[in-house]
Amino acid sequence: MPRTAHQTLNALLQDLDTAQLHTGLKGLEKESLRVTGDGSIAQTDHPAVFGSALTHPWITTDYSEALLEFITPPEPSVVYGLESLDAIHRHVAAHLNRQQEMLWTSSMPCVLRGGEDIPIARYGSSNVGRMRHIYRRGLDWRYGRAMQAIAGIHFNYSFSPIVMRALQAQRGHTGSLQDFSSRAYFGLIRNFQRLGWLIPLIHGASPALCRSFAGDEELGFEEFSDDTLYEPYGTSLRMSDVGYKNKAQAALNISYDSLDAYVSSLTRAITTSDPDYERIGVRVDGEYRQLNTNVLQIENEYYSFIRPKAVARSGEKPTLALQRAGVEYVEVRALDLNPFEAIGTNSRTLHFVEVLLYLCLLRESPPISPREQGGINRNQGLVARYGRDPDLMLQRNGDEHLPLRDWARSLMDELAAIAEVLDRNTGGEPYTTAVAEARAAVEDTSRTLSAQVLLQMQDREEGFIEFALAQARLHARQLLSRPLPEAQEAEFRAAAEASLAEQQAIEAGDTLDFESYLARYMAQRPEPRAEDIRHNIQRS
């Protein structure tokens, strides 16, 4: 009989100290729109005081010039990551206040007055800077700008080599640690695909949106007020078919069976031309509309709950980095901004995700069949739009149908057992507390974050924009009340100056024209691995 995740974890502790379970690295990437005092998207350039969006280590932009992205250095403790994120917010809030702007606190965008109201991010005149900008133009042509203004938090997570080595020995894998780690991470990813709906159920915070987001499109939502659409049982419209789980990518068959299968299927998507994108064109009247006409311009265009990641070298495609280094960490992309937190998240949320990642790593993880993948996609969409419906049914293992609440309860039992182990010798019970709060939200969905958003909107008789704007003003006051010490502000000034100098050096160092640079970048192909070559020789 296969071991449970809890049994596997206890077996690992025969070779590990519990403290070693916490020695992997964690980092955060948090997006927030810059908005004006009336809740409109800022039309100003990326503030010069924040340095270069191309090269700054902590402050950059995502899709839009107004969509800030904050990056925390990888640390062993989520507490350190939250402290770094807090410092970035305090620094940014102080400078935005001087130009009468704030950070939007919700995942779904503020008032949008058409696509042109969302300025596409710019990164200077270098080849890499131009490529980033043109890629974003392509996203506009393919999906529209409104979807690109959605914000979230990405949680980057790695298990320490010590943990992976112990797990490798326990599973009797005799290959390299890099190969085993990649296999283990892909097992985790498959399980996260199966179970990740727990995150929007409990921590989703986008059950409503501004009517301006929909434009003239009929999205099938109910009307909360004249300017607000919502789903009564919605949890994360950001992760629904109107957000990043959009229909345009529904036909992509990206495989998570193995590193090779993932690289191969993603490579096929970034090298296969699409007739609809051919009609858009690449360079029209001397101006680039997109990088190419392929199903995906580059790997980052593929949206998913979770991604395998490796640190890429300068100019290296993500798929090549994965093939060279193996999976080094995973990027969890399922978290909405928490509009009740000034920095968009808190330790309880991250501790819960951490326990879930351990469960996904340690559980048995067979390949996902096409039938099961269909059920997974359906589950994710249902929970995003109707997750708090007490009668909601999900599909498990491709054929079994069961109530969401029954499945969630059984998972909470497994998570609680893992949390108890992770709490040993921590001086408290942060993981147990996080799972207990999640269990309470499963039993009483009015305690979920999405329900709390709607409850506050109803109690205050506020539409989505009024609610989010009030939270933005509250958080601005909270952040401004705690100015950074001068020494930390000096660090930010130095980082901004260094980033501007680095951007100038990159621009001065370009030796290729842009067309040649782009062609060379796109020409990179994954190298066949030795076992693939042997397999092909045997077949021939």
CATH class: Alpha Beta
CATH topology descriptor: Creatine Kinase, Chain A, domain 2
> Domains counted in the coordinates: how many?
1
The assigned structural class equals alpha+beta
Give the number of helices.
20
Question: Low-confidence parts, pLDDT < 50 over ≥5 residues?
Answer: 530-540
Gross geometry: globular
Summarize the main sheet: 7 strands, antiparallel
Q: Which oligomeric state applies?
A: single chain
Residue fraction in strands: 5-15%
Helix content: 40-55%
Average pLDDT works out at: 93
Distance between the termini: 40 Å
Q: Count of DSSP E strands?
A: 14
CATH architecture annotation: 2-Layer Sandwich
Q: Mind telling me the C-alpha Rg?
A: 23 Å
Brief synopsis:
This protein is an alpha+beta fold and 540 residues long. The chain has a single domain, classed as Creatine Kinase, Chain A, domain 2, CATH 3.30.590.20.
Question: What does this protein structure show overall?
Answer:
This protein has 540 residues and is an alpha+beta fold. The protein has one domain: Creatine Kinase, Chain A, domain 2. 47% of the residues lie in helices and 11% in strands. It is built from 20 helices and 14 strands. Strands 1, 2, 3, 4, 5, 11 and 12 form a seven-stranded antiparallel β-sheet that branches. A three-stranded antiparallel β-sheet has the order 6-8-7. A two-stranded antiparallel sheet has the order 9-10. Strand 7 (222-225) and strand 8 (228-230) form a beta hairpin. The longest helix is centred in the C-terminal third of the chain and has 24 residues, at 486-509. It is globular and about 60 Å long.
